[in-house]
Amino acid sequence: MYAGAAVAVDLFGHATPAGVAWLRCLGAAVVLLAWRRPGRPAWRGRRLLLAIVFGVVTAGMNVLFYEAIARLPLGTVVAMEFAGPVVVAAVGSRSLRDVLAVLLVACGVVAIADVQLSGSVAGVVFALSAAAAWAAYILLGKRVASAEGSGIDSLAIGFAAATVVLSPLAFGTGEVWSSPRLLLLGIGVGVLSTVVPYALDQVVLRRLGQARFAVLLALLPVTAGVMGFVLLGQVPSLPEALGTLAVVAGVALRSREASVGSGPEPPG
Questions:
Q1: Cα–Cα distance between 268 and 55 in angstroms, integer?
Q2: Residue in 135, 137, 86 with CA at minimum distance from that of residue 109
Q3: What is the CA radius of gyration of the chain?
Q4: What is the pLDDT along the chain (268 residues), one digit of tens a residue?
């Protein structure tokens, strides 16, 4: 996911952030449809409607995120966007231990991100909107994963629909179409940031509750920190290191609580 984000930032010089998000959606739709080839049942009734809504919400989340990181530091946006999963996890909490795990994760993410609210007001609005969309992604993603048939098939249909619905954003991709290299990078963003992680999300959501999944998403900023250190030579500060430990502790606490209960939900 963060390798794809690095490529996307490089593309911002050749297309608008929303245009890059649309290219990501297009690339994901093409690859997923070619891979899955959803059967007729996936294109009918409530399953089709759910797939379309899920795809449009997810693609919209990506557009909002790219618009935010074009205006604010990536760490600030990640911290603000994480408010969405934290709310989902908090709503799904059933014990004091759950609440403590969520608080540890939330504090850890804020420490990692080193949030600074002195940036663009528009960037803050985009980031908070992306947070709301991320919460909706988790809730809808669980329904898609638990529905009859393959959630990945529905993902393919959803991104195909989102590509059409958001097609006006393609006007911001003009320069990309004149360069095979840039077009390939745009499709690559779709594979790295959408096909691989979102397909894995469907596998995980089919087996876990949405609250537990929301807490596990806290590993994303930790992964970003590792990628930054390995690929960009960004050495974490003391607050960032402590934040990473807090996130890991929160995830471990939530996972341990789950392991002594009834266990993960069985595949539907």
A1: 21
A2: 86
A3: 18
A4: 777 777 787 788 888 999 999 999 999 999 989 988 888 887 887 888 989 999 999 999 999 998 988 887 777 777 778 778 777 777 766 678 778 877 887 887 777 766 656 667 888 889 889 989 988 988 888 788 776 666 788 888 999 999 999 999 999 888 888 888 888 888 888 888 888 888 887 777 777 766 676 667 667 777 767 776 776 676 777 877 787 788 777 777 765 555 444 333 333 3
Nearest to residue 23, comparing CAs of 140, 220, 192?
A: 192
Q: Which two tokens stand for residue 175?
A: 């320069």
Query: Could you give the CA distance from residue 259 to residue 124 in angstroms, rounded to a whole number?
Result: 37
pTM: 0.76
Tokens 């790295």 — which residue?
192
